[in-house]
Amino acid sequence: MDPPAAPSATVSQRDQWIVESQVYKIYEHFASIPPNAQSVMLELQRDRHMEFLEKGLGHLAPSFSVLDANRPWLCYWILHSIALLGESVDDELENNTIDFLSRCQDPNGGYGGGPGQMPHLATTYAAVNTLITLGGQKALASINRDKLSGFLHRMKQPDGGFRMHDVGEIDVRACYTAISVASVLNILDNELISNVGDFILSCQTYEGGIAGEPGSEAHGGYTFCGLATMILIDEVNRLDLPRLTEWVVFRQGPECGFQGRTNKLVDGCYSFWQGAVVDLLRRFYSIIEKQMASLAAQKGDSAEESSQILTTSDGFEGMGRSSLVNFNSIGCNFLKEPRATEPLFHSIALQQYILLCSQELEGGLRDKPGKRRDYYHTCYCLSGLSVCQYSSSKDPDRPPLPKSVLGPYSNLLEPVHPLFNVVLERYHEAHQFFRGFS
């Protein structure tokens, strides 16, 4: 009798092997060349990235017509990348951007994907972050906070979720974009916060990560959105943080970059989505330790009782704390929280993946070897690189030590606020500007 045939590889396995092989060849070549050549390979190509980004602000090819409903996102991806590089645009281009986004602002609140398009939470987040990134009186004052507040309240659902747009989908991404915008504009109130924590808690999966909606698969982008939202509404300790931490740290694979989901391919954009999650979690190590201790003490209890320990640890009493917390200041106060002394992921390895595998020498960054550069991946690869570089710093306002920056120290980017993904200096300006409004 013949032995059973070996099972054939799945499509996912074959794709994974191809990617690992491509990455291994890059790393093997890097290891084989002289140190001076290695330094060149690790250099962030600032001038070429700027050429790529400025070209996108000036003119886009017809192929970009598929992003007609995402033009505020293009503004954000490009201008945030420029800000991360420590650069800015000229006055004419800044004024044109403010004027364009003003025409995207709906008369009844929120921003659409283009002039005359329906308001949408995703493009509202992109537009607001773009205006914060530009900074200055004209940009920040162009946001109609009262109308935007009305739009956010219209999108709010009784179960705590938000719709992305009128009769649109309800998911964790909608919660984050609504709460993030409300927080930075100083319009976050109890009505917007009500039941949001319950909705996000229902999206945390058995793996530990957070899905887009209840019953779906844990995903890096939604995990960032869910965790950041829970921080901004001061309910982060309701999540199962030990399990979330375990899930996210195991998403950094042999390629040194992050994957977005279990058994999926590495992708440069998760350098931020997953890297920022790990960075955020470092500020809650005391809560994580308490949750782990509570579970260890209750090993004999049922799973339901153990879950209850997680949702009530640290004395959380539901929304009863709202009267004691200034929710609009959480984003600013969060930066003052102490962090665990060491990063929970391999920061230098992730920088290596970004610089050697995601960076294109002619400018722009990409998903992985074999993919093309684009503005989305340029934005989130650079954002992730910034998170890596400052991951060992106790004070984000101070430059990190040279050992924390892979390659020449000229690779150092501007620090970002990990909850909002805007350059820290621009966030502080916006916070000061909007705190003057009641």
From TrEMBL:
Leader peptide range in chain numbering: none
Listed GO CC annotations: protein farnesyltransferase complex
SUPFAM superfamilies (alphabetical): Terpenoid cyclases/Protein prenyltransferases (SSF48239)
Keyword Metal-binding attributed: yes
Domain of life the protein comes from: Eukaryota
Gene3D superfamilies in the cross-refs: 1.50.10.20
Gene Ontology terms, MF aspect: protein farnesyltransferase activity; zinc ion binding
Alphabetical keyword list: Metal-binding, Prenyltransferase, Repeat, Transferase, Zinc
The protein's assembly and partners: Heterodimer of FTA and FTB.
Function as written in the Swiss-Prot or TrEMBL entry: Catalyzes the transfer of a farnesyl moiety from farnesyl diphosphate to a cysteine at the fourth position from the C-terminus of several proteins. The beta subunit is responsible for peptide-binding.
Listed name of the protein: Protein farnesyltransferase subunit beta
